[in-house]
Design brief:
Elements (H helix, E strand, L loop, with lengths): L4 E2 L8 H4 L1 H11 L7 E4 L1 H10 L2 H9 L7 H16 L8 H10 L9 H4 L6 E8 L11 E6 L1 H13 L4 H9 L7 E7 L5 E6 L8 E8 L11 E6 L5 E5 L5 E5 L5 E6 L11 H18 L3 E8 L2 E9 L4 H12 L31 H5 L21 E3 L12 H6 L37 H30 L8 H12 L4 H15 L6 H16 L1
Antiparallel strand pairs: 1-2, 2-5, 3-4, 3-5, 6-7, 6-12, 7-8, 8-9, 10-11, 11-14, 12-13
Length: about 550
């Protein structure tokens, strides 16, 4: 018996089964907006998990002792509940259905080829908790990313359910007198975007504008990334004001499951993360979603391969007091310093008489059924010299008596932290602007420049490898994790022809040149980096 639900099988009457986030995602999917391949784990599995493991009784007993005005009491209760969860397992009768649904996310394309159905690819997924009560607009607890493998997926489910008993979640329900609740979990095949956007269907000053915030990398589940902020008129869909910020780093997935990386951007963080056209399109999609759902919300988007995908949505709370409090986060982000943009494309005065300009994106691109082929993510690689990895904090950090199997796999959604950031050069790291001048007669890099160029080359090699992977998947439909990137590059060259192939190989050799304590000349470095840029830009 299939216990999980697909997005096309969820309707208004299923709110108690799946929760608000899943219901809203289903409505958006059914209107043909692009969403990642997904399914929903309904409340019945959460209920049975709590009942069959006696967690329902034991958790209630712990909560009966809580003093809601005492933060220490809330934290101690959470530690006890965390320990109880660590000893519990999902009931066996649900495992087959969960396995089938999880494996279904491995399909590579929508062509229905037998090889696709027999694919040995292990899906990489995000999990999003979806309770049947309205969460705070900025609440992103219970969101887990980059989970790979069925056991990791099961432990992630437990972690999502556990997030419902964090001190913040307990206090939130207590203040709103929510005594009973249900919760589904959205399981979403992971898309690795280059840019994310967050949009508010209502601005802090009224219902006449959209607020859009954008940044490089994965969704900002830690609320740490600096963001570009745009104000767009709701009636005319024109950018009225904008604030550009320096983004110091972006969050990317590690090749190791359950881990995320902070990658520092250097001068690349100075660039506007979304084009004017994309900002307008985000606002347009937000306007249409507002009409579909008929509520106000904050929505998260993934911009991937020039398409805009829906990631998650938080409704505004019903209470005016709560709504005002949530909207105040926009004003707290420094928008009092917003400046008028110089966007000729977005603010063409000739178009001010039209209430809604024709979309820069085609209707087919915005509303067509998502292609399964687009869900093959560009997996990022990790530089061995970058010690920036982080994982969701394991349960064992709080309770050492847990079984080893559970400790190794379960990600903790409530206390996510990154390790200390590594230092990066403040020099310009954009290789398109690399300075080729050098006072040395032999044009060699100076000792002061050596570390800078080595880091620049290392970052560029990773970008080249990502592009090799992307192109290989486009041509051959798969990419084995064990495949050598040089071999993959050679096969791409045989298939399509690459005028810069030799330069790409030489660029990798430069790293070994530095390891041998040799200093290549700046002219050579610049030539090879330019070749790499042409390859990456397509």
């Amino acid at each position: 018996m299939p216990y999980t639900l697909t997005l096309n099988a969820i309707f208004d009457s299923d709110l108690k089964k799946v929760g608000h986030r899943a219901l809203d995602m289903a409505k958006i999917f059914q209107k043909k907006y692009k969403t990642p391949l997904s399914f929903v784990v309904p409340n019945v599995i959460f209920d049975e998990f709590m009942i069959q493991t006696r967690l329902q009784h034991d958790v209630a007993k712990v909560l009966n002792t809580v003093s809601f005005e005492n933060q220490g009491s809330l934290e101690n209760a959470y530690k006890e509940i965390k320990n109880l969860f660590s000893k519990a397992s999902i009931p066996a009768e649900f495992l087959e259905s969960l396995r089938d649904a999880y494996d279904s996310l491995a399909i590579r394309s929508d062509e229905g080829k037998p090889d696709d159905l027999l694919s040995e690819e292990v899906p990489i997924v995000n999990l999003i908790i979806s309770p049947d009560y309205i969460l705070g607009t900025e609440d992103i607890k219970g969101v887990l990313m980059n989970l790979k493998g069925f056991e990791s997926f099961l432990n992630g489910l437990a972690s999502c359910w556990l997030s419902l008993y964090s001190p913040e979640a307990i206090t939130y329900r207590h203040k709103r007198n929510i005594k009973e609740f249900n919760a589904g979990v959205i399981v979403q095949k992971m898309i690795v975007p280059k840019v994310c956007a967050e949009a508010y269907s209502k601005g802090p000053l009224g219902n006449y504008e959209f607020k859009v915030r954008s940044y490089l990398g994965l969704p900002d589940i830690l609320k740490e990334s600096s963001k570009d902020v745009f104000s767009i008129s709701k009636e005319y869909l024109k950018i009225e004001s904008a604030k550009k910020t320096l983004q110091e780093y972006m969050i990317i997935p590690s090749q190791r499951p359950n881990l995320l990386i902070k990658r520092f951007l250097g001068s690349r963080g100075q660039d506007q993360s979304l084009s004017d056209k994309e900002v307008i399109e985000v606002a347009r999609l937000t306007k249409r979603m507002n009409e579909v759902l008929d509520v106000h919300f904050k929505v998260y988007y993934l911009i991937f391969k020039e398409s805009i995908y829906f990631f998650m949505l938080n409704r505004f709370p019903d209470s005016k007091e709560n709504e005002t409090q949530d909207l105040s986060t926009l004003q707290a982000s420094g928008e009092e310093n917003i400046v008028e943009p110089s966007y000729a494309e977005a603010n063409n005065s000739e178009g001010n008489n039209e209430k809604e300009e024709k979309s820069e994106f085609s209707e087919e691109e915005m509303f067509s059924e998502p292609s399964q082929e687009e869900f093959k993510e560009i997996r990022q690689t990790q530089d061995e010299h970058e010690q920036m990895e982080s994982t969701h904090k394991p349960i064992s950090d709080v309770q050492n008596s847990v079984s080893e199997e559970y400790v190794e796999e379960i990600p903790e959604s409530v206390e996510e932290n990154f390790s200390e950031e590594v230092e990066v050069s403040s020099e310009d790291s954009n290789f398109n602007e690399t300075n080729t001048d050098n006072s040395s007669n032999n044009n060699q890099t100076s000792p002061a420049d050596k570390e800078y160029y080595k880091r620049l080359i290392s970052d560029t090699v990773m970008d080249v490898d990502n592009e090799i992977r992307r192109r290989y998947i486009e041509i051959f439909g798969y990419f084995q994790e064990s495949m050598d990137y040089d071999i993959a590059l050679e096969r791409i060259h045989e298939k399509t022809g690459l005028p810069d192939k030799d330069d790409l190989s030489k660029l990798k050799d430069l790293l070994y040149t530095y390891d041998r304590k040799e200093n290549p000349d700046v002219k050579t470095i610049t030539q090879l980096l330019d070749s790499a840029k042409r390859f990456i830009d397509g």
